[in-house]
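Morning!

As promised:
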Amino acid sequence: MSRLVGGAVIALLVLTVARSAGADALERVRQTGVLRWGSDAEGGAPYVFPDPADPTRIIGYELELMEHVARELGVRAEMVQNSWDGLIPGLGRHDYELAVNGIEITADRAAVVAFSEPYYAATEQLAVRRDETALRCLGDLGGRKVGTLKATAAERILRERGDLEVVTYDSQLSPYEDMALGRIDAVLMDFPIALYYGQLNPKVRLTDCEVGEVLYGMAFRQEDEALRREVNAALDRLQRAGVLRQIYEEWGLWNDATANLLGEPQRVLRHASKYEAYLRSMKQELPLAEMVARYGSYLPILGRGALMTIAISGLAMLLAVLLGLVLALMRMYGPWWLRWCAVVYIEAIRGTPLLIQLYLIFYGLPNLGIRLSPFFAALIGLGCNYAVYEAENYRAGIQSVAAAQAEAALSLGMSPRQAFLHVILPQAFRVVIPPVTNDFIALFKDSSLVSVITLVELTKAYGMLAATYYDYIGIGLMAAALYFLMGYPFSFLARRVEKRLAKAKR
Amino acid sequence: MSRLVGGAVIALLVLTVARSAGADALERVRQTGVLRWGSDAEGGAPYVFPDPADPTRIIGYELELMEHVARELGVRAEMVQNSWDGLIPGLGRHDYELAVNGIEITADRAAVVAFSEPYYAATEQLAVRRDETALRCLGDLGGRKVGTLKATAAERILRERGDLEVVTYDSQLSPYEDMALGRIDAVLMDFPIALYYGQLNPKVRLTDCEVGEVLYGMAFRQEDEALRREVNAALDRLQRAGVLRQIYEEWGLWNDATANLLGEPQRVLRHASKYEAYLRSMKQELPLAEMVARYGSYLPILGRGALMTIAISGLAMLLAVLLGLVLALMRMYGPWWLRWCAVVYIEAIRGTPLLIQLYLIFYGLPNLGIRLSPFFAALIGLGCNYAVYEAENYRAGIQSVAAAQAEAALSLGMSPRQAFLHVILPQAFRVVIPPVTNDFIALFKDSSLVSVITLVELTKAYGMLAATYYDYIGIGLMAAALYFLMGYPFSFLARRVEKRLAKAKR
Amino acid sequence: MNRFIRNRTFPFISPGLAVEVEGLSKTFDGRTVLDSIGIAVPRGCLTVLIGPSGCGKTTLLRCLNGLDVFDCGRVTIAGITVERPQLSGKRWEQTIRAVRRKVGIVFQSFNLFPHLTVLDNLTLAPRTVKGESREQAETRAMELLKLVGLADKVGAYPDFLSGGQQQRVAIARALAMEPEVILYDEPTSAIDEERVDEVLDVMEALDARDMTQVVVTHEIAFAREVAEHVVFLDEGAVVEEGPPEQVLTDPLHPRTRKFLRRFLATLHNPPPTTAP
Amino acid sequence: MNRFIRNRTFPFISPGLAVEVEGLSKTFDGRTVLDSIGIAVPRGCLTVLIGPSGCGKTTLLRCLNGLDVFDCGRVTIAGITVERPQLSGKRWEQTIRAVRRKVGIVFQSFNLFPHLTVLDNLTLAPRTVKGESREQAETRAMELLKLVGLADKVGAYPDFLSGGQQQRVAIARALAMEPEVILYDEPTSAIDEERVDEVLDVMEALDARDMTQVVVTHEIAFAREVAEHVVFLDEGAVVEEGPPEQVLTDPLHPRTRKFLRRFLATLHNPPPTTAP
Ligand SMILES: Nc1ncnc2c1ncn2[C@@H]1O[C@H](COP(=O)(O)OP(=O)(O)OP(=O)(O)O)[C@@H](O)[C@H]1O
Ligand SMILES: Nc1ncnc2c1ncn2[C@@H]1O[C@H](COP(=O)(O)OP(=O)(O)OP(=O)(O)O)[C@@H](O)[C@H]1O
Ligand SMILES: [Mg+2]
Ligand SMILES: [Mg+2]
């Protein structure tokens, strides 16, 4: 059920993107003086990624590009992080005015969004093992295994030629590693990726065989004609001023395809300073000390992610606790209709999966004109969902307190509210600690779902770093440790509190 | 975290498929006298699907084909249901000897499994709206929108031609409907699908434009050389005996491509009896009465699915309740080391997502030689997971019973066990009903996950029917209703029991 | 030898009635437990309710401060009138709440708050209901605890107190609210000979301060000592009432005689004693 | 006028001791509650424990059937010896369980099972522990309920019973196990004059059957009626013990005198009475 419904909902939401109207974006940009652009730092080098030398800094040639574009428009550029799959739905939410992240201009995307003029042209670059001197281009690969990224131009190109086995991957790194290990014989990928991920591997040789060509474009909402025209103009000026060329050259990305695209000479003028900086900070075999230092350097990012996780889980739990209490009271002491509402709410929420609820709040509500910030959406989504479980837990706890206690309190002149607050609740509290601990820990876990609505919490931060350093295990362990460090103190605390309260019991 | 880990795990498991050794399959088939083949009845007509005339029967040309193949081998064919994505991993579990479900022979699949000789060749068939008499073939579609299924040969073919917009879908039906509604202008799909899904729609016209060609093959474990050779031989004999041709003709699937493949004359000899039967049972505009009757006819399947859901949820909950009780006791009364084990188990399980646990049990354990039947895998996965939550709930409930009660029982000479059983537990029971109800309903929901391990529970059954009749709403509502009918009585019952027990309270 | 006679401000000339019950009836699922009870308790007078187990004493007390809702009849207590079934719903709630602020009760089963220390048990209500300051509440609490001889248990939790200690805390808790009328249900059920004196002293002191007290007890000897007025209940009805020396020493009604048989016996042929 | 004197099978020639306590000490987090107690209760004899609130009576009873674990000393009860600290851990558990099967206790706060009807409260233990058949257990339960005058409450739940009714159910529940020794903690705390007779009858009957009974009470009058042997505890120590007519009417020890002051007073100048 849920999963099918889920699919439906999401599809629906993405479709509505195109429709959802909004004030003229250009106006807004001019007024606010900020050009917000969406991108995913997990996408990796060289587009937008954490600086290996100082992972707390986000860098990338598209970042520089956007800063120039913004300057041209006389405003400030502001990057908005979003998961790659969410980049286009995000446009519909007006979280940012355009999405820029090496997005290929394709027909089906063009159906939903409007693209700027292409700002970069990438050929597909073939990489093979150093020792395979014989392999020059696709022609030499008859029957061999060639790897590439899923659902990219490269994959399509490879499939066209029936004569070789295509193996597809999800991450930029793995194909090159698999090739180094001999699992596959060649890798075909966009030139920038080949340069930044293939080149690094000493066992890998980039052939000068280039096939096909993809164009990167900036994605706009279809209605934002004006803004798009402005940005196109800006790109044009930047190109004429030679800024584009400079950027691409510094990042070592200048290639014939782009040269032709921009109608400029192909030979390279500057040396690729930034690319080399990147290589330096990646290549060097680190001595243990520095290795440790590097892991240390991840902490700020992971830490920030963890803080987000804590903030969301914590606040969501707070919401859940309070709302849950209200629900429990409604259900236990309310008049029939309130009781009925509570029951319906409870049955409804605990009947539908959290992910759907998040999508509805985040991508659905805007269609009703309610635009929640990602943080609040996450908070409300998680909070309202868990409130249901809390409600039932409290009911159990409250009912476990003897009626005589309430009587004693009332007969001392307390109002029902006071009696509940000072006598019932404290005694119920002790009973509900274990189930509530259950839920809080489950919530820590579920909170990683909110990365689908643009928030960078621990899991996302881990993904970004792992993609930059190709270190899934090491960083993974760090992330796991952090999760443990977040969750455990809580169950520990819970145990302590339980003990303390037990003091009053014989 | 979880999702990334998840990806990793599953990848790993699928990779192990090829490796995991096993006795010679042919031997086993001969001994058992059964040829088990995996397929997904949700795949739709005409491959393997519920008979529209009597949805409790599974039919399809591949079913007939496999029955003949089996007869050739002198054994009985037995279809094993599995989700389409699971068909190849399923081979690794030795749930069946081969997978047959219109599986295209592609290079990357060939990397993991071994294919039989192709048994059917399908061209890609173009369909347009009746009124679009001008549209003859792809050439006429410049700049128009063309729909097809995701990740199929058709998609690749369309993308190669840069000159048209490609819109991809998940289900065979939607593209034709969208075309009828004018959202897209043409649909390119495998001939059988076009015939069975396109033809039905009065607004749709199948052009005689055929492009590309895909070959269907049967997928075997790579080590099962012998069996594959036998099946190839059988196919060969069937072809020479004209059986293949007969089947394809009766299903209206005979086409030039296949004719060439089998080296036979192209003209059709028989009339497509089964195809027409199919059309009849689908086409007819039903009067209300029969409409109702038809919905009635879904009930057996949905019902069976529901029974599976109930069986699994019920038994899993039973397991959870018992195991949970043990855990709670271990944690509360056990010696330090038992207590410690309980805590670790609890923290570990509630720290990892259910889906991963299911995959590990189902696809992971076999590598350790433990091969659980899907049903048991589901049962154990769900049970052991929920046991943790139950454990904590019980602990809360038990601690809410006054110590004086235990003293009273002990001082009457009861053993601690008896005191617990007859005095503590019954009083705790009342307290834990609400949280346990929470969990049971959550369990009903989560049980739909088990369809990933080949079980046909309600959600899966719904998927299969919906794919056959293209009726996602109607049947969806029925399924929803069934879920409600399953869950509600339980919360109702819970409420009743609570009331009854409350009788003893002043 | 009623220690109260001495300082009895003769109740029947004291200004009017503190508790007046008329035609009060109460049934529990069909079984009539109280059957049109009528009682009048003068202000400042200490009244004792006696009667066989299950005759409705506790229920009557619970009806007086609204823990049980009687079916019909009129109760006027601490100047507030509750008339049923006329009064009900929200209005009943408000009225009864006003009543409870002026009427304290000591439960047969104490019902102390197990999650609070003895001190907090005493201070909770004054602070939440009367909004007293912590100091204020605690000073009075300490006085009361001294009064009932538990000064040393201030910080203890109820579960760790002996029966008698718990009962005395319960009495102190009720007094901490300084009620106009106080209802005791078996206040000495767990208190020994010696401590009874202390409880008596407390009641005496309160009586002196003109507090109205209603005591349910089964200890006739005790009743005889404290009572200014005695009511004998049986099967939910008032059988006989009057001054203790009359009701307790030579009751008119045969049922009362029967009930008091043993006590009267001890009374009329005292146990053999060896001279002190 | 001890109703038991009549049929007293002279305890001191009856075969040995049913309960023998030697040097039993118990501290609660540092505070000494019982201080090397020594008591000897002959088989078939009814012993009464009296003493001021908080002196350790309940704790002593709880030590006798192992609900509280005493720190050191020896207890021999119903023929089983528990010596601490020697006996502990698993072995202690087993021993104490054997003890509990032969020793019944009636709690000061009743502790009935709220989820069971009166009848089931009485039959649960016999059926689970002794493995009696439902019929067997229920017939005895009915007898006992008649005995304590609650035949009409068989099906009621404890919460709906009055204090006295609960207390009598508690007594019946203890008797249902047919123990050799039975410990009562304030068995009449909620029971009225009239009912006390019934309780007395019960004790008498048991006494006749040579059952050993230990009664904690604060009602001296009651003590005087039932006791064959009286022990006076104070601050966790035995101050004085002996036959009731001696300990209760003219005690040797000044502390005892002080404790009994009021009772002795009533005794030596009985209240004024009007002739019957
Ligand atoms: N909540 C209730 N539901 C049903 N019956 C009740 C309830 N409370 C009390 N009763 C019954 O009402 C009668 C009077 O109870 P009540 O507690 O007032 O007696 P009592 O005079 O206090 O007796 P005791 O001296 O033993 O406390 C008893 O028979 C009791 O069983
Ligand atoms: N579990 C406990 N922890 C700490 N102190 C306790 C505990 N139980 C009892 N006490 C203390 O031990 C002393 C003796 O308690 P006990 O209940 O034996 O007195 P008692 O003789 O039964 O008094 P009463 O006649 O009032 O019931 C009391 O001062 C009490 O506060
Ligand atoms: Mg009572
Ligand atoms: Mg006691």
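The pocket of magnesium ion (ligand 4) is lined by residues C 162-163; D 57-58, 108, 185 (CB under 6 Å).

Hope this helps with the figure draft.
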